[in-house]
Amino acid sequence: MSTADIPLWAALPAALLLICGGLLTFLGSLGLLRLNNFYARIHAPTMGSTLGTGCVLLASILVSSALEQRPVIHEVLITILILLTAPVTAMLLMRAGMFRRRD
Amino acid sequence: MNTILSAAIYFALACFALAMLCALIRLLRGPTAEDRILALDTLYINSMLTILMLGIGYGSAIYFDIALLIALFGFVGSTAMAKFLLRGEVIEP
């Protein structure tokens, strides 16, 4: 990896945010694998799709701003997109699950 | 300091690979169709995060566009499949 000349004030918080984001995403996907019910399983990956994405995008903003020597905030676009679309998908999936389990 | 950032990037890449493995097992094993769609949803978010991580690691801005496109089309795909399960067709007349 060519993380050549990134100053310490950006590298340390970015590393911390990347570790937090990776662990949160892994825990969310582990919950998707381990929980035993569909209604329980739909909760777990939201941790990866909100907190994990937020941590990684914040780290990306930090590193890009430190590399370009100016504020680079175009990663906010992905954050807004994920924050808008994740609840829509979860709601549609939950309604589909309830619809298919009706008697 | 750059070794710290490189180690964090490798650690996060390993975490995302394990997360994608978990989602893949759920995708292959899931008892119902909703589980498989949920696993696909998790899988595209994890792959988007992996590509963002590669963009941080290589210091290139091209990976941002790929991540944006994956987020966009992943949402469209998940919504279409959930809508198909819910109503029996995707685009209703």
From TrEMBL, chain A:
Keywords: Membrane, Transmembrane, Transmembrane helix. InterPro entries: PhaG_MnhG_YufB. The chain crosses the membrane at residues 6-33, 45-67, 73-94. It comes from the Bacteria. GO terms for molecular function: sodium:proton antiporter activity. PANTHER family: ANTIPORTER SUBUNIT MNHG2-RELATED. This is K(+)/H(+) antiporter subunit G. It comes from Candidatus Nitrotoga fabula.
From TrEMBL, chain B:
It is found in: Cell membrane. InterPro entries: MrpF/PhaF-like (IPR007208). It is a multi-pass membrane protein. GO terms for molecular function: sodium:proton antiporter activity. One of its GO terms (cellular component) is plasma membrane. Coiled coil: none annotated. Keywords: Antiport, Cell membrane, Ion transport, Membrane, Transmembrane, Transmembrane helix, Transport. The chain crosses the membrane at residues 6-25, 37-56, 62-86. Belongs to the CPA3 antiporters (TC 2.A.63) subunit F family. NCBIfam families: PRK06161.1. This is Monovalent cation/H(+) antiporter subunit F. The gene is mrpF.
